[in-house]
């Protein structure tokens, strides 16, 4: 199974703890402000629809460029290996 650089980055403790913190803040803001919640829900539905449409439109292009994406992913994974080796702080949550 080939590694996916995006998944690896999202699994880094510094990144995952930041994402969790942002998600908690977003959720608590929606819960505290009903008007903000309704605006956010409209925005979320729009983003989901646009994302699905974009993926449908990009599918043929992605299929044709798959070999190039694989090469870029491999290079990015090697670069991430180097960063993780040189910057140990990436392995710690934001609060540490």
Oligomerization state: single chain
In whole angstroms, how far apart are the ends?
32 Å
pLDDT below 50 for ≥5 consecutive residues: which ranges? none
Q: How would you sum up the global shape? A: flat
Q: Could you estimate the helical fraction of the residues in percent?
A: over 70%
What string, H for helix and E for strand, traces the elements in order?
A: HHHH
Count every helix, treating DSSP H or I runs of 4 or more residues as helices: 4
User: Mean of residue pLDDT?
Assistant: 88
| Class inferred from helices and paired strands | mainly alpha
By DSSP, the count of extended strands is: 0
Name the beta content range.
under 5%
């Amino acid at each position: 199974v080939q590694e996916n650089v995006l998944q690896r980055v999202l699994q880094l403790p510094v990144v995952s703890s930041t994402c969790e913190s942002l998600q908690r803040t977003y959720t608590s803001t929606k819960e505290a402000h009903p008007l903000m919640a309704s605006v956010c829900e409209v925005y979320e539905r729009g983003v989901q629809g646009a994302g699905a449409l974009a993926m449908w439109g990009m599918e043929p292009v992605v299929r044709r460029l798959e070999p190039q994406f694989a090469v870029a992913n491999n290079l990015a994974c090697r670069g991430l290996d180097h960063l993780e080796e040189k910057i140990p702080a990436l392995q710690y949550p934001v609060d540490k």
